[in-house]
Design goal:
The complex is a heterodimer of chains A (33) and B (163). With 33 residues, chain A is mainly α. Chain A is 67% helix and 0% strand. Chain A has one domain. Chain A is rod-shaped and about 40 Å long. By secondary structure, chain B is mainly α. Chain B has one domain. Chain B is built from 6 helices and no strands. Chain B is elongated. Classes of the chains: A mainly alpha (33), B mainly alpha (163). Chains A and B meet through helix 1 of A and helix 1, helix 4 and helix 5 of B.
């Protein structure tokens, strides 16, 4: 039974990709991009 | 050749491949393999012969990766970690993820794996809790590794990623 998104390998990978996209935008904004 | 950054970058990559490679082995291979092995009664070999060796290289590769990364940052270490210089923003994000992952390895994964593998004594209830904590910490590190590697790459090639 899945309790968290981290119980699923796909949930783990997708959350890592979303986190990357989110942080990319923040850093890009901070760098004036 | 500037020996310190050149050798530290090389060691950082070598140890980093070993650390993250073993992390991916645990998450992409071993979790499912251990479950299947437990179902057919063959999990003892993994626990006895594979995990202690894999965890030895895993936890020490994490330390070497971090130390080599710190040496590579050199006098720019504080600029990166505290975001004092825009040029170090990308590598600063990567360095923070790497640091959180190292903390996860030594404070959550390894102490709980010692209980699971019987290296330290623990009741069945403690072992079950340790399994859950070690699993979630390992999955968290797998999730963190994705932005960590992105920002490590971006740190060395900022114009390509943020140009």
């Amino acid at each position: 039974m899945m309790k968290y998104w981290l119980d699923s390998l796909w949930g783990t990978v997708i959350s890592g990709l979303i986190l990357t996209l989110f942080l990319h935008n923040i850093v890009s904004y901070a760098l004036g991009g | 050749m500037d020996w310190v950054p050149a050798i530290s970058r090389w060691i950082h990559l070598l140890a980093g491949v070993m650390w993250i490679g073993l992390l991916y082995y645990f998450n992409f291979v071993n979790v499912a393999a251990a479950k299947a092995a437990a179902a057919d009664g063959t999990a003892a070999g993994i626990s006895k012969h594979v995990m202690p060796r894999a965890l030895f290289w895993f936890r020490w590769a994490a330390v070497v990766t971090w130390l080599a990364g710190a040496a590579l940052l050199g006098r720019h270490f504080l600029e990166a970690f505290f975001f004092l210089n825009k040029a170090y923003y990308p590598i600063g994000v990567g360095a923070w993820f790497g640091t959180l992952m190292l903390i996860n390895v030594w404070w959550l994964i390894w102490p709980n794996q010692k209980k699971i593998l019987g290296i330290v004594s623990a009741s069945d209830e403690e072992k079950n809790k340790a399994r859950r904590v070690a699993f979630l910490a390992s999955r968290t590190n797998t999730m963190f590794s994705i932005p960590m590697l992105y920002f490590m790459a971006a740190g060395a090639h900022s114009a390509l990623y943020f140009g």
